[in-house]
User: Fold this.
Amino acid sequence: MSIERITLTQTMDGEVYQNVFHMDNPDGLTNPSDIADDIVTHWIPAIRPYQTNILQYVNIEVRRVSPAGAAPYNRPLAIFGGSGFRPPHVVAGAVFQFHSATAGRHGRGRYYMAATNSTWYNIGFLSPQGVTESTVVTAAWKGRYVDAGHPSTLSLKVVSKADPSFNVTVTDIVCRTLWGIQRRRNYTVGI
Assistant:
């Protein structure tokens, strides 16, 4: 078993957004290029229609963190969001929460959706349209990476920063009902 850290980098209006999540590569035989293919083919298309078309996915990095592996695999991307709506704010967006059977903060994770379609929220709360469309996203991700008998060899995990060998399997994904703030870096700083 190996744990792979996936970092998706996106840009919009001179801002850089990064999301880090982890996948279990059960036999350790799936190579980083194939993992990147899986994310580009299944993860991004589930969320992309609900992100503004000025957001661009620019890079995917796959790094083996447990056991520690070779240098990370990086692939440049040129994938744009699919919505014509402008996001209400450059750093506020939807938050998808990863839940596991482990209680407490060690059993939870999250994924910030940068450039969320403005129709998803009304005065900071998830709108009926946002509920419907976020359910489509979570169903796609759960069907591919979480549910029993899912078709991918990869499984979504919540992993400890301090010790990547401590990890728990994600059992559910839900969209939070309030806006979240994406911690961000200024353009070309810290990357």
